[in-house]
Structure formats: structure tokens, C-alpha cells
Amino acid sequence: MKKTGLKITALTAVACLTLSGCKASYFGLPGLFYEAVEATEDILEDSLYYESDIDDEDVDIWTWPDSEEHDDSFDWDDYEYENPDAEPGTVTVMVYMNGSTLETEAGVATADIMEMIRAGYNEDVNVVIQTMGTKYWSEKLGIASNRSQTYVIGEDGLELVRDDLGQLDCTKADTLYEFIQYCGKEYPASRNILILWDHGGGPAYGFGWDEFQDDWENLSVDEMRKALKNCNVHFDFIGMDCCIMSCLEITYSLRDYCDYMILSEDFESCLGWYYTGWLEALYDNTSISTYDLGKILIDDMIRKNENDRFNGDRSILALVDESKMEKLWDIWVEFAYENEDALLATNFSQELEETGKGVGLSSRRANPSLKMSDLYDLFFGDSDLWDTLESISDDDVYMSDYCITDLMGLAYIIEGDDSERLIKAVDKALLYVGATDDNLSLTGISVTLPYNDADLYYELEYVLDRCGFDEEYIEWLKKFCDVDNGRDFDWSGWGESFWNEWGEYEGSDIWGEW
Questions:
Q1: pLDDT greater than 90 at residue 44
Q2: CA-to-CA dists, residue 437 to 316, 362, 368, 441, angstroms
Q3: Within 13 Å, how many C-alpha atoms sit on residue 241's CB side?
Q4: 146-155, 210-219, 352-361, 431-440: which range is least confident on average?
């Protein structure tokens, strides 16, 4: 789930509007107006679609931890999952791009593909993009709307390599499996990267709302796991350029299929990832370490959101070490059982929200709200909506809607025998985290506690069961569905100062070997 933004430029005026879709609010341009606006391409050349008009001035990037536990470069000789059919030094980046409403109403998928193209080309790196699930693709790149297609980025830009796929359903495990298999066979590489691009709904609601499917269809975490398990391709990292997917349930479920993950704990703005910078770094040095590559990716995303006050928003992105997930999960479960009473006594996710943190939009800008049904009157009728836009609040998406609670927040606030151990485990698992200066209430990874939400619990129960989670833990989560949570918790001491306190945990040896 991305929140998307787009500047609409007309011949003599600039207007801003907001659309609502998929429970996320975003600025957008519906397909109805694509042809008219793209006809003014000379004016739009510097818009979000193509080149960013934001000067990337230096900003204070909040990051933690300053980890030294990473390789200086990618080790081709010792890489356990090296493909014997691939030459060392080769990389394949697989982009599973379900443009969905993000493209239809705002052209954001097109904008990101343009960023990939601008990075250039290296014959040792294949960037393979599969386009799906979008009723109206921008005409800028010639991507078809009535069928799925597969592209690669070559010397001359975007090159079509498969045009006989029909209209694929991106929410099916078989679709993801086939794409990975195709890339592995046609573009064998010793280093593989997988990116899932679209909306995200956390471990309960999964990934990928396809415009050609029913609203409740999604690619669930257990379906991701099924596809990855059977494809016989191991990934250097799996990234999800979508909202609220940096959850312990997701990273733990996919730990056997990649070495690292790059994920957002919060909602993403329209800017999402910035693809040019990290792809340029990969083209320049295919042996760049995943830590250094992830750091570039994370810093670029945060910098773009800090600089762009129109399209940017509060953001956080984390590089997760998957080799630490089993240990972190075990420590979390011990902590959870030990502190059951404290966890049940307060709806931590909602308390975070009600103190102004964890809401769907940051306070850096006031976004108006506009329904799709109002568009015709707004542009062509005698609408008075323009007069009311500034008075309409758009804070209608909350982290508590998805029962997301910051894992480090729980460990830091709840004082128990296992608290410091959980703090250390999270510190070990998160190699690098970046955040905008208005999003320091989060630290990189969350856990799902279904406070007063039986519907979400039953969705989560199904997913966790199919992913092989312990039955006792799944049953334990049921206790959160109907609890009387007090309103006595104060998050005011949580935030900026906390990001400067990590030093006290460095060098601790009480947790044993990892």
C-alpha cells in the first residue's frame, strides 16, 4: 500500500487534488485525464512521471545502528546458492510490478520504471520487469493495459521480451513462481534480487491488489512462501516497495529464501523507493555489498521524502538480516508470553496512533480528500469542491487498522526480565534503518497484535498456520481480539532521543553467540 502523490500541471494553472483508494489516500491522476495531460508532455517533463524537480540538498538522515557486522563486498566464490549456469559477477533484478491503482490513478509505476531506465545499463546486470494488474498504464512507455508483459532494461531503454502472457493474476502464487522461474532460466545469475512492487497490507492482508481481481484477493505471505519454496532460486535480498510490510511475521516466514530483506514498517509516500541511485551503484560494481547497496537505497528514499514537501511524507525503511530471524522470533515469543498481562492491558498500536504517531499521513502537510465520484464535477461541472478542499482531513488510515506495533517500542517500554534481551535481538537483526525526522517513533520492524479485531485475527491465523507457525502462539494471539484496553500509556518519551541511545547496547556479550 503506497500513498501516492502527483502534481497536475495544466497550460495555465496548477491544481492539487486527493483521491482515496485501497484504504490509502494519495494525490492522483485518473486514467480519464492521461491523454489530455500527456499531450502537454513538454510541460510535464519535470513532473513526478519523469525527472524529479526536487534538488537533493543535504538533509540530516536519521539512521541506526551503525553496524559493522557486514561484508565489505559480495563474495562470489563462497556464495552458497551460486547458480552453476551463471558467471560470477552477474546479477538479475526481478521486479514483480503490479501497478494497480497506483499506476491507473497516478502513473507511479511508470515513474519508477523511468528511474530504472535513467540508471543506465550494464551487460552483467539484467533488470527484468513484469507489468500486471493495471487497467490503465501511461502511454509514455507503451506498456499494454489489456495484458501482462515482461520487459528488460537494455542499452536502448525498455525492451519488450514477452507479450503472450495474457492478463495475469498477480495475487496467485503460480504467477510469482512462473516469473521467477522464467528469470532464472533466461537470465541466470550468481546474485539474484526480487522486488515486489504495489500495495501492502502487512502479514494479515498480504501484497498486491490487482485491478482485474476482486478487492479481497491478494498475494498472501503463505503464497509468497509457496512460490519461493518451489522456484529453487535463492535471493541476495527480497525488497517490498509497498507499505507496512516490515513485520516480524513476514521476515520470519521468508527467512529461508533470501539473505536480507528491505521493507517499510510505515506507509509509503508516492515516491516509494528511488531506483536510479542504487542501480547505478550496482552497475558500477556488481560486487557491492548488500549492506552498502541497501544503505544507498534507504538513504535515497529518506532524502527524497525529506526534500520533496509536495509528494514526500513521513518514511522509514529497514535492511533486515534474515539469518537472525529464528533467534529474534524465539526471543520475541518468550518476551510475549512473559509479559502477556502488560501487552493485553494497553492497545499499544492504537496508543501510538492517538498521540499523533502512527497515523496514515504526517503533519508536514495538510492533504485534502476527494472521492473518485466527484472528479467529473470537479473538472467539468459547477463544483464547489475546490472551496472545501483545505478543510477536509485526510487522516483516515492508521497503523492500528492493521494492528501494527513497533517491536523495539514494546521491548523498550515494557520492563521485564526479557526486555533487554529483545532489544539486543532487534538491534542484531536490523542492519540499517533510515527515517525522516518526523517518523522517529518507529525503529524498523513491527509485530502484529490483533487488538479488538477478530476479522484481522482470523485472516492472520490462516496465514500463520499455512506458514508453519506454532499452534500455541496462534491460539495465544486470540486473546487480543476482545480485551478492555486502558488509555493510560504515554508515548511522549519515545522518539528522537531514542535514536541516539543505541550505543549502550553495543558490545554486550550476555546474549551468547549468534
A1: no
A2: 10, 11, 23, 10
A3: 28
A4: 352-361
SS (H, E, C) 159-177: EEEECCCCCCCCCCHHHHH
Confidence of residue 407 (pLDDT cuts 50, 70, 90): very high
Query: Domains (ranges, CATH) in the chain?
Result: 88-329 (3.40.50), 332-359+398-505 (no CATH)
CB count within 10 Å of CB 82 equals 16
> Is the dihedral angle over the CA atoms 116, 119, 121, 125 positive or is it negative?
negative
Beta bridge partners of 130: 96, 150
Helices (H), 187-220: 202-205
Q: Name the packing angle between helices 108-118 and 275-284 (round to 10°).
A: 30
Rounded to whole angstroms, what are the CA distances from 109 to 195, 377, 470?
Answer: 13, 27, 38
Question: pLDDT per residue over 82-130, tens digit each?
Answer: 677 788 899 999 999 999 988 998 899 999 999 999 999 999 999 999 9
Strand 14-15 and strand 8-9: the pairing is antiparallel
425 closest CA partner among 342, 326, 493, 348: 326
